[in-house]
Structure formats: structure tokens, C-alpha cells
């Protein structure tokens, strides 16, 4: 979130799966690219090497844009042991910020004294302004809000804080993550070997709802299960802007390639329409529906619910 002449500017963050997509996203209007790699970053469209991240940072900086690197894993001893050289190299290649939710990782970052900003990202734990304020006191420059919060709660949080609260405005929601290889274990148990990674398009199904499809995949960091719908707050963007929620995250973990870029470009167009007073939510909702894959319905998740109905 940036301020110019007293006017709060909207910051669009988007995941990038490659250098080529990063360039397309920058041309589509993205302000901050979100990337990362194993074993520190979770639920990314593609795990990238430091060399690939370096190239993307150089590219983004040539556009005058930023790169945030995911270090959002809950870390074990061996990961903490590898973290110091990783963070040092990120600082050296000019990463603008990292997302961290593990207090041990935050301790390591602070102990190193690197010129590397951190954004507090502890998943479902980021549910109050007071918690964010605590981590701001520890050096955080902002926070990633829990996806289970309602807009009412998010607005109340942001009004109590000077630092930006990042809100996911598009993409799937992770509803379960395990560090264990659950799919591999399942195939071993059944004696029917199968592929477990993202391109295989595996789903779980609720026995009570034969039409339900919960995407599931396994990677080096464990097993990840996602919501049946993709979140979309395109119809609520002006309300968010009016209430100070101006840091928008678009997640392409399940949507590869050019279609994700087109959706990001649509949100950038919505941003400009809001800033110029020409935003018509119904038009942008209809256009997003045409870009959205037929297999992934759109929904608003918890955001439009009454907080009393969620808790």
C-alpha cells in the first residue's frame, strides 16, 4: 500500500510461476510479485531456485516494482539450520521483503540484521489487530490476514493499524496442509501406485456432495488440499478501497499460464476504474466469470458472512 499526495494507492500482489509469467504479470499491472522455493515457501504455483528468483527480482526492479519471497513454512530444526544462508542470499540479490510466520524464523532474521523487510504471515493465526501490532513491534512491515476472516473483521483490523493488511481477492483457499506425504501413503496402502503432483489434477470428494471437488496435491513440502471454489472479491473491491483495505493478493497456485495473467489484468483495470470513479462491479464480475475455468466456480468464501455466523 502506497500513499501519494494524501491518496492511498492500491497495491496488487500476484504469484509468479516463472520468469516469463513474471514479465507478463508486470506488464499486466502487478506492483509486487510473490515467489519462493523449497523448503521455505509453501503453496506456490512453482518452487523456484535462488537463481530464478534473482532473475525475477532484477526484472521487477527494472520495472520499478517489488518482489516478496515466501518463507511462510512452519519450520523444523533442519530448515532453521538452512535459513541463515537463504535469507542472506535473498538480501544480497535485493529481495524487497519476505513473508514469515514462524517465530523462530523471525528470530533468525532479526539476529542476522539484514536489510530485509518481513511481512507477518502465520496463516489462520492472523485474526486481530493486536496480534499484528505485536509483530509490527518486532519489526513486521505488514501482515497477511487469515482467509477465514469476514470483511467486517478485516475492516475493523485495518482501521486500528497504520501497516497494510493483505487480503486475498482472487484464487483458491488452502483448507488443509500436512507435512506428510498423504497421497503417497494412500497409494502405498492401496497397492495402486499413482502420480501425486499438481499437474495430475487430483480431487477429494465429499460423500454427501457428489459434485464437490477439493483439489489435492503433494510436493516436497507435504500435502495440500484446497477449497472447492476460487475466491473472488472483484465485486467488493470498491468497498475495500473505501475502508482502507488496499493490499490485494491474487493467488495462481492452481491456475497456470496466460489465463491467470488475464485475470490479474482485469483486477488492475478494476483498480483504475475505482480510482477514476468509473467502477461498475457487475461488469467486472461478468468479465471474470468468462475468464474463470469452468471446473472452478467462484465464491466469496467467509468474507461476506456475519462474523457471528463464522465463530
TrEMBL record:
Q: One Pfam family for this entry, by name?
A: Peptidase_U32
Q: What is this protein identified as?
A: Peptidase
Origin species: Sporolactobacillus laevolacticus DSM 442
Amino acid at each position: 500500500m502506497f500513499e501519494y499526495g494524501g491518496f492511498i494507492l492500491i497495491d496488487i500482489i500476484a504469484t509468479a510461476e516463472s520468469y516469463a509469467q513474471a514479465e507478463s504479470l508486470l506488464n499486466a499491472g502487478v506492483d509486487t510479485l510473490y515467489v519462493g522455493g523449497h523448503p521455505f515457501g509453501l503453496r506456490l504455483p512453482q518452487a523456484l531456485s535462488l537463481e530464478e528468483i534473482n532473475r525475477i527480482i532484477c526484472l521487477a526492479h527494472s520495472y520499478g516494482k517489488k518482489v516478496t519471497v515466501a518463507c511462510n513454512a512452519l519450520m523444523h530444526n533442519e530448515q532453521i539450520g538452512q535459513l541463515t544462508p537463504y535469507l542472506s542470499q535473498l538480501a544480497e540479490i535485493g529481495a524487497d521483503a519476505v513473508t514469515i510466520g514462524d517465530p523462530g524464523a523471525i528470530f533468525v532474521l532479526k539476529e542476522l540484521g539484514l536489510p530485509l523487510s518481513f511481512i507477518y504471515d502465520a496463516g489462520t493465526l492472523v485474526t486481530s489487530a493486536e496480534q499484528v501490532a505485536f509483530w509490527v513491534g518486532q519489526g513486521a512491515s505488514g501482515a497477511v490476514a487469515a482467509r477465514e476472516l469476514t470483511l467486517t473483521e478485516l475492516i475493523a483490523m485495518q482501521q486500528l493499524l497504520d501497516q497494510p493488511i493483505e487480503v486475498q481477492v482472487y484464487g483458491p483457499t488452502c483448507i488443509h496442509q500436512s507435512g506428510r506425504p498423504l497421497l503417497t501413503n494412500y497409494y502405498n496402502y492401496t497397492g495402486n501406485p499413482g502420480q501425486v503432483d499438481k499437474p495430475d489434477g487430483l480431487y477429494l470428494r465429499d460423500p454427501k456432495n457428489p459434485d464437490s471437488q477439493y483439489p489435492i496435491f503433494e510436493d516436497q513440502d507435504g500435502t495440500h488440499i484446497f477449497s472447492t471454489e476460487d475466491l473472488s472479491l472483484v465485486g467488493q473491491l470498491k468497498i475495500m478501497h473505501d475502508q482502507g483495505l488496499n493490499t490485494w493478493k491474487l493467488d495462481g497456485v492452481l491456475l497456470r499460464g496466460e489465463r491467470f495473467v488475464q485475470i490479474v489484468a482485469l483486477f488492475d483495470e478494476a483498480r483504475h476504474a475505482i480510482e477514476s470513479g468509473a467502477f461498475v462491479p457487475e461488469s467486472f464480475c461478468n468479465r471474470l466469470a468468462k475468464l474463470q475455468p469452468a471446473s472452478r466456480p467462484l465464491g466469496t468464501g467467509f468474507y461476506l458472512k456475519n462474523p457471528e455466523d463464522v465463530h
